[in-house]
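Revision sheet: C-alpha coordinates.
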Amino acid sequence: MNQNLKLGTTEAISIMLIVPFAHLLVTLPKLLLQDQGSGSILNIIYITILALFSVFILTLLYKNFKGKDILDVSNYLLGKPFMYIVGLVYISYFIFVASLTLRNAAENLKTIYFNNTPLPYIIFFLAICIGFINKYNIKSIIKTNLIILVIVIIALFTLSIFSINDFVPERIYPILGDGISNTFLHGINNIFIFTNIAFLLFLMPLLRNTSKFNKISYISVLVSGLFILTTITSLLLMFPLEISSNSNSPIYLQSRQIVLGKFIQRIDAFYVLVWIITILSYLSIIIGFINLIFKKITNIQNRSTISYCFVLILFGLSLIYKNTIEVRKVDLGILKTSTLFIVFGVSFFILIFGNIKKKLKGDNTKYEQNT
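Predicted:
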Protein backbone atom coordinates (compact mmCIF):
# COMPACT_ATOMS: atom_id res chain seq x y z
CA MET A 1 0.00 0.00 0.00
CA ASN A 2 2.92 2.29 0.77
CA GLN A 3 6.39 1.23 -0.24
CA ASN A 4 8.05 3.68 2.18
CA LEU A 5 6.08 2.55 5.21
CA LYS A 6 7.27 -0.71 6.68
CA LEU A 7 6.25 -1.68 10.20
CA GLY A 8 7.92 -3.95 12.69
CA THR A 9 5.92 -6.47 14.70
CA THR A 10 5.65 -4.26 17.79
CA GLU A 11 4.52 -1.24 15.81
CA ALA A 12 1.88 -3.27 13.99
CA ILE A 13 0.54 -4.70 17.26
CA SER A 14 0.38 -1.19 18.73
CA ILE A 15 -1.90 -0.09 15.86
CA MET A 16 -4.16 -3.04 16.49
CA LEU A 17 -4.33 -2.48 20.26
CA ILE A 18 -4.95 1.27 20.29
CA VAL A 19 -8.37 0.61 18.71
CA PRO A 20 -10.03 -1.31 21.61
CA PHE A 21 -8.23 0.81 24.21
CA ALA A 22 -9.62 4.00 22.68
CA HIS A 23 -13.13 2.53 22.65
CA LEU A 24 -12.72 1.32 26.26
CA LEU A 25 -12.03 4.88 27.32
CA VAL A 26 -15.11 6.26 25.56
CA THR A 27 -18.28 4.19 25.17
CA LEU A 28 -17.47 0.48 25.06
CA PRO A 29 -17.98 -0.27 28.79
CA LYS A 30 -21.39 1.39 28.82
CA LEU A 31 -22.52 -0.37 25.64
CA LEU A 32 -21.47 -3.82 26.90
CA LEU A 33 -22.83 -3.39 30.41
CA GLN A 34 -26.17 -2.07 29.15
CA ASP A 35 -26.47 -4.93 26.70
CA GLN A 36 -25.24 -7.82 28.85
CA GLY A 37 -25.33 -6.68 32.48
CA SER A 38 -23.70 -9.21 34.79
CA GLY A 39 -23.40 -11.58 31.83
CA SER A 40 -20.74 -9.30 30.30
CA ILE A 41 -17.86 -11.43 31.60
CA LEU A 42 -19.04 -14.63 29.88
CA ASN A 43 -20.04 -12.70 26.77
CA ILE A 44 -16.58 -11.14 26.40
CA ILE A 45 -14.90 -14.53 26.79
CA TYR A 46 -17.29 -15.96 24.20
CA ILE A 47 -16.81 -13.21 21.59
CA THR A 48 -13.04 -13.23 22.14
CA ILE A 49 -13.03 -16.93 21.21
CA LEU A 50 -15.15 -16.11 18.14
CA ALA A 51 -12.77 -13.29 17.19
CA LEU A 52 -9.78 -15.64 17.49
CA PHE A 53 -11.59 -18.14 15.27
CA SER A 54 -12.27 -15.34 12.76
CA VAL A 55 -8.56 -14.50 12.77
CA PHE A 56 -7.76 -18.17 12.22
CA ILE A 57 -9.98 -18.16 9.10
CA LEU A 58 -8.53 -14.83 8.00
CA THR A 59 -4.93 -16.02 8.20
CA LEU A 60 -5.82 -19.18 6.27
CA LEU A 61 -7.46 -17.13 3.52
CA TYR A 62 -4.47 -14.80 3.27
CA LYS A 63 -1.98 -17.63 2.69
CA ASN A 64 -2.37 -17.26 -1.07
CA PHE A 65 -2.16 -13.45 -0.91
CA LYS A 66 1.08 -12.78 0.93
CA GLY A 67 1.97 -9.10 1.05
CA LYS A 68 -1.47 -8.02 -0.21
CA ASP A 69 -4.42 -6.27 1.41
CA ILE A 70 -8.16 -6.52 0.87
CA LEU A 71 -7.96 -3.99 -1.99
CA ASP A 72 -5.43 -6.13 -3.85
CA VAL A 73 -7.62 -9.20 -3.41
CA SER A 74 -10.65 -7.22 -4.64
CA ASN A 75 -8.65 -6.16 -7.70
CA TYR A 76 -7.63 -9.75 -8.36
CA LEU A 77 -11.20 -10.98 -7.95
CA LEU A 78 -13.19 -8.54 -10.08
CA GLY A 79 -10.80 -5.88 -11.30
CA LYS A 80 -10.10 -2.24 -10.51
CA PRO A 81 -13.73 -0.99 -10.48
CA PHE A 82 -14.51 -3.44 -7.68
CA MET A 83 -11.33 -2.41 -5.86
CA TYR A 84 -12.47 1.24 -6.02
CA ILE A 85 -15.87 0.30 -4.56
CA VAL A 86 -14.32 -1.68 -1.69
CA GLY A 87 -11.88 1.16 -1.02
CA LEU A 88 -14.68 3.73 -0.85
CA VAL A 89 -16.74 1.44 1.41
CA TYR A 90 -13.86 1.15 3.86
CA ILE A 91 -13.12 4.88 3.76
CA SER A 92 -16.78 5.52 4.57
CA TYR A 93 -16.71 2.90 7.34
CA PHE A 94 -13.55 4.30 8.97
CA ILE A 95 -14.86 7.87 8.76
CA PHE A 96 -18.16 6.76 10.31
CA VAL A 97 -16.43 4.97 13.21
CA ALA A 98 -14.07 7.92 13.73
CA SER A 99 -16.94 10.45 13.77
CA LEU A 100 -18.75 8.47 16.46
CA THR A 101 -15.58 8.22 18.54
CA LEU A 102 -14.88 11.94 18.17
CA ARG A 103 -18.45 12.87 19.09
CA ASN A 104 -18.50 10.55 22.12
CA ALA A 105 -15.13 11.84 23.32
CA ALA A 106 -16.32 15.44 23.01
CA GLU A 107 -19.58 14.64 24.83
CA ASN A 108 -17.64 13.10 27.71
CA LEU A 109 -15.22 16.01 27.94
CA LYS A 110 -18.12 18.44 28.03
CA THR A 111 -19.81 16.47 30.81
CA ILE A 112 -16.64 16.13 32.89
CA TYR A 113 -14.85 19.47 32.56
CA PHE A 114 -16.44 21.86 30.06
CA ASN A 115 -20.10 22.15 30.97
CA ASN A 116 -20.37 25.73 29.73
CA THR A 117 -18.45 25.20 26.48
CA PRO A 118 -20.52 24.62 23.31
CA LEU A 119 -20.01 21.08 22.03
CA PRO A 120 -18.95 22.19 18.50
CA TYR A 121 -16.03 24.10 20.03
CA ILE A 122 -14.75 20.96 21.77
CA ILE A 123 -15.15 18.89 18.62
CA PHE A 124 -13.40 21.61 16.61
CA PHE A 125 -10.47 21.69 19.04
CA LEU A 126 -10.02 17.91 18.84
CA ALA A 127 -10.32 18.00 15.03
CA ILE A 128 -7.63 20.71 14.84
CA CYS A 129 -5.35 18.51 16.96
CA ILE A 130 -5.94 15.54 14.63
CA GLY A 131 -5.21 17.69 11.58
CA PHE A 132 -2.00 19.00 13.15
CA ILE A 133 -0.83 15.49 14.09
CA ASN A 134 -1.40 14.30 10.53
CA LYS A 135 1.02 16.94 9.23
CA TYR A 136 3.64 14.40 10.23
CA ASN A 137 4.13 11.18 8.30
CA ILE A 138 2.22 8.13 9.45
CA LYS A 139 5.43 6.36 10.49
CA SER A 140 6.06 9.06 13.11
CA ILE A 141 2.45 8.85 14.28
CA ILE A 142 2.72 5.09 14.70
CA LYS A 143 5.99 5.37 16.67
CA THR A 144 4.36 7.91 18.99
CA ASN A 145 1.32 5.66 19.25
CA LEU A 146 3.54 2.89 20.61
CA ILE A 147 4.60 5.13 23.52
CA ILE A 148 1.01 6.19 24.15
CA LEU A 149 -0.11 2.57 24.14
CA VAL A 150 2.39 1.68 26.87
CA ILE A 151 1.09 4.56 28.99
CA VAL A 152 -2.57 3.61 28.57
CA ILE A 153 -1.86 -0.08 29.32
CA ILE A 154 -0.11 0.89 32.56
CA ALA A 155 -2.92 3.33 33.40
CA LEU A 156 -5.73 0.80 32.89
CA PHE A 157 -3.84 -1.98 34.66
CA THR A 158 -3.04 0.16 37.73
CA LEU A 159 -6.61 1.45 37.79
CA SER A 160 -7.90 -2.11 38.13
CA ILE A 161 -5.27 -2.92 40.79
CA PHE A 162 -6.05 0.18 42.87
CA SER A 163 -9.76 -0.65 42.73
CA ILE A 164 -9.48 -4.15 44.20
CA ASN A 165 -10.37 -3.04 47.73
CA ASP A 166 -13.72 -1.74 46.46
CA PHE A 167 -14.65 -4.95 44.62
CA VAL A 168 -17.86 -6.74 45.62
CA PRO A 169 -17.71 -10.31 44.19
CA GLU A 170 -21.47 -10.80 44.50
CA ARG A 171 -22.04 -8.23 41.74
CA ILE A 172 -21.05 -10.73 39.03
CA TYR A 173 -24.26 -12.69 39.71
CA PRO A 174 -26.33 -13.82 37.92
CA ILE A 175 -23.31 -14.77 35.85
CA LEU A 176 -25.47 -15.46 32.77
CA GLY A 177 -27.04 -12.02 32.96
CA ASP A 178 -30.43 -12.13 31.26
CA GLY A 179 -30.00 -15.76 30.26
CA ILE A 180 -28.15 -18.05 27.87
CA SER A 181 -29.96 -16.72 24.81
CA ASN A 182 -29.01 -13.09 25.51
CA THR A 183 -25.41 -13.94 26.38
CA PHE A 184 -24.58 -16.35 23.56
CA LEU A 185 -27.12 -15.79 20.77
CA HIS A 186 -28.01 -12.12 20.90
CA GLY A 187 -24.58 -11.42 22.39
CA ILE A 188 -22.76 -12.62 19.27
CA ASN A 189 -23.35 -9.13 17.83
CA ASN A 190 -20.85 -7.80 20.35
CA ILE A 191 -18.03 -9.15 18.23
CA PHE A 192 -18.20 -5.65 16.75
CA ILE A 193 -15.91 -4.58 19.61
CA PHE A 194 -13.06 -6.16 17.63
CA THR A 195 -13.15 -3.45 15.00
CA ASN A 196 -9.35 -3.69 14.94
CA ILE A 197 -9.78 -6.71 12.65
CA ALA A 198 -10.69 -4.14 9.97
CA PHE A 199 -7.13 -2.81 10.23
CA LEU A 200 -5.76 -6.32 9.79
CA LEU A 201 -7.25 -6.37 6.30
CA PHE A 202 -4.91 -3.53 5.27
CA LEU A 203 -1.88 -4.41 7.38
CA MET A 204 -0.07 -7.05 5.30
CA PRO A 205 1.60 -4.71 2.72
CA LEU A 206 2.80 -2.45 5.55
CA LEU A 207 4.74 -5.17 7.36
CA ARG A 208 8.50 -5.38 7.17
CA ASN A 209 8.20 -9.14 7.56
CA THR A 210 4.91 -10.55 6.24
CA SER A 211 5.60 -13.92 7.92
CA LYS A 212 4.76 -12.19 11.23
CA PHE A 213 1.18 -11.47 10.10
CA ASN A 214 -0.30 -14.48 11.90
CA LYS A 215 1.57 -13.70 15.11
CA ILE A 216 0.47 -10.06 15.03
CA SER A 217 -3.15 -11.06 14.38
CA TYR A 218 -3.44 -13.55 17.24
CA ILE A 219 -1.56 -11.47 19.80
CA SER A 220 -3.58 -8.35 18.98
CA VAL A 221 -6.98 -10.01 19.31
CA LEU A 222 -6.02 -12.02 22.41
CA VAL A 223 -4.54 -9.03 24.26
CA SER A 224 -7.52 -6.88 23.22
CA GLY A 225 -9.91 -9.46 24.63
CA LEU A 226 -7.97 -9.82 27.88
CA PHE A 227 -7.89 -6.08 28.54
CA ILE A 228 -11.55 -5.63 27.67
CA LEU A 229 -12.37 -8.52 30.01
CA THR A 230 -10.20 -7.10 32.82
CA THR A 231 -11.64 -3.60 32.49
CA ILE A 232 -15.29 -4.64 32.30
CA THR A 233 -14.88 -7.12 35.18
CA SER A 234 -13.29 -4.38 37.27
CA LEU A 235 -16.20 -2.01 36.60
CA LEU A 236 -18.76 -4.73 37.23
CA LEU A 237 -17.23 -5.61 40.60
CA MET A 238 -16.72 -2.01 41.70
CA PHE A 239 -20.10 -0.40 40.97
CA PRO A 240 -23.73 -1.48 41.08
CA LEU A 241 -24.87 -2.24 37.53
CA GLU A 242 -27.30 0.69 37.56
CA ILE A 243 -24.36 3.09 37.99
CA SER A 244 -21.73 1.56 35.68
CA SER A 245 -24.17 0.94 32.82
CA ASN A 246 -25.63 4.45 32.91
CA SER A 247 -22.45 6.47 33.28
CA ASN A 248 -21.18 8.07 30.07
CA SER A 249 -17.63 7.24 31.13
CA PRO A 250 -17.49 4.45 33.74
CA ILE A 251 -13.67 4.39 33.68
CA TYR A 252 -13.55 8.08 34.60
CA LEU A 253 -15.98 7.35 37.41
CA GLN A 254 -13.69 4.54 38.57
CA SER A 255 -10.63 6.80 38.49
CA ARG A 256 -12.39 9.32 40.75
CA GLN A 257 -12.69 6.70 43.47
CA ILE A 258 -8.94 6.11 43.67
CA VAL A 259 -7.14 7.68 46.64
CA LEU A 260 -3.45 6.95 47.27
CA GLY A 261 -2.75 8.04 50.83
CA LYS A 262 -3.38 11.56 52.07
CA PHE A 263 -1.38 13.39 49.45
CA ILE A 264 -2.36 11.79 46.15
CA GLN A 265 -6.05 12.23 45.48
CA ARG A 266 -8.25 13.00 42.48
CA ILE A 267 -5.92 11.24 40.03
CA ASP A 268 -8.78 11.32 37.55
CA ALA A 269 -7.14 14.35 35.88
CA PHE A 270 -4.24 12.11 34.86
CA TYR A 271 -6.63 9.54 33.41
CA VAL A 272 -8.50 12.20 31.44
CA LEU A 273 -5.16 13.33 29.96
CA VAL A 274 -4.33 9.71 29.02
CA TRP A 275 -7.81 9.35 27.59
CA ILE A 276 -7.45 12.46 25.38
CA ILE A 277 -4.04 11.54 23.94
CA THR A 278 -5.24 7.96 23.32
CA ILE A 279 -8.29 9.18 21.40
CA LEU A 280 -6.18 11.62 19.38
CA SER A 281 -3.65 8.89 18.56
CA TYR A 282 -6.39 6.47 17.50
CA LEU A 283 -8.21 9.00 15.32
CA SER A 284 -4.93 10.14 13.74
CA ILE A 285 -4.12 6.54 12.80
CA ILE A 286 -7.60 6.13 11.29
CA ILE A 287 -7.02 9.26 9.17
CA GLY A 288 -3.61 7.85 8.22
CA PHE A 289 -5.16 4.58 7.01
CA ILE A 290 -7.87 6.47 5.14
CA ASN A 291 -5.12 8.45 3.39
CA LEU A 292 -3.35 5.25 2.39
CA ILE A 293 -6.53 3.71 1.01
CA PHE A 294 -7.49 6.88 -0.86
CA LYS A 295 -4.02 7.23 -2.37
CA LYS A 296 -4.13 3.62 -3.53
CA ILE A 297 -7.43 3.95 -5.36
CA THR A 298 -6.75 7.44 -6.81
CA ASN A 299 -2.93 7.73 -7.05
CA ILE A 300 -3.17 11.23 -5.51
CA GLN A 301 0.11 11.93 -3.72
CA ASN A 302 -0.58 15.19 -1.84
CA ARG A 303 -0.96 13.70 1.62
CA SER A 304 -1.51 16.96 3.56
CA THR A 305 -4.43 18.10 1.43
CA ILE A 306 -6.07 14.66 1.68
CA SER A 307 -5.65 14.65 5.47
CA TYR A 308 -7.22 18.09 5.91
CA CYS A 309 -10.16 17.13 3.70
CA PHE A 310 -10.92 13.99 5.69
CA VAL A 311 -10.48 15.77 9.04
CA LEU A 312 -12.99 18.37 7.81
CA ILE A 313 -15.43 15.59 6.84
CA LEU A 314 -14.85 13.99 10.25
CA PHE A 315 -15.64 17.28 11.98
CA GLY A 316 -18.84 17.75 9.96
CA LEU A 317 -20.12 14.22 10.55
CA SER A 318 -19.50 14.54 14.28
CA LEU A 319 -21.93 17.47 14.37
CA ILE A 320 -24.87 15.81 12.61
CA TYR A 321 -26.08 13.87 15.66
CA LYS A 322 -28.75 15.80 17.51
CA ASN A 323 -27.98 14.60 21.02
CA THR A 324 -26.39 11.88 23.14
CA ILE A 325 -29.43 9.62 22.82
CA GLU A 326 -29.15 9.63 19.04
CA VAL A 327 -25.42 8.87 19.24
CA ARG A 328 -26.12 5.88 21.51
CA LYS A 329 -28.75 4.57 19.08
CA VAL A 330 -26.24 4.76 16.24
CA ASP A 331 -23.62 3.01 18.42
CA LEU A 332 -25.99 0.18 19.24
CA GLY A 333 -27.55 -0.13 15.80
CA ILE A 334 -25.65 1.10 12.76
CA LEU A 335 -22.14 0.60 14.19
CA LYS A 336 -22.80 -3.03 15.11
CA THR A 337 -24.53 -3.80 11.84
CA SER A 338 -21.97 -2.10 9.61
CA THR A 339 -19.05 -3.80 11.38
CA LEU A 340 -20.64 -7.23 11.08
CA PHE A 341 -21.61 -6.68 7.44
CA ILE A 342 -18.44 -5.01 6.13
CA VAL A 343 -15.64 -6.45 8.27
CA PHE A 344 -16.93 -9.94 9.08
CA GLY A 345 -19.18 -10.35 6.06
CA VAL A 346 -18.17 -8.72 2.78
CA SER A 347 -14.42 -8.80 3.44
CA PHE A 348 -14.38 -12.50 4.29
CA PHE A 349 -16.46 -13.31 1.20
CA ILE A 350 -13.98 -11.39 -0.97
CA LEU A 351 -11.13 -13.46 0.45
CA ILE A 352 -13.08 -16.71 0.10
CA PHE A 353 -13.98 -16.07 -3.54
CA GLY A 354 -10.48 -14.82 -4.24
CA ASN A 355 -9.13 -18.18 -3.05
CA ILE A 356 -11.77 -20.04 -5.08
CA LYS A 357 -10.74 -18.13 -8.21
CA LYS A 358 -7.11 -19.07 -7.66
CA LYS A 359 -8.06 -22.72 -7.21
CA LEU A 360 -10.25 -22.76 -10.33
CA LYS A 361 -7.43 -21.17 -12.33
CA GLY A 362 -5.04 -23.77 -10.96
CA ASP A 363 -2.79 -20.96 -9.75
CA ASN A 364 -0.71 -22.23 -6.84
CA THR A 365 1.63 -19.24 -6.79
CA LYS A 366 1.30 -16.31 -4.41
CA TYR A 367 -0.56 -13.37 -5.88
CA GLU A 368 2.02 -10.73 -6.81
CA GLN A 369 0.17 -8.39 -9.15
CA ASN A 370 1.48 -4.84 -9.03
CA THR A 371 -1.13 -2.26 -8.12
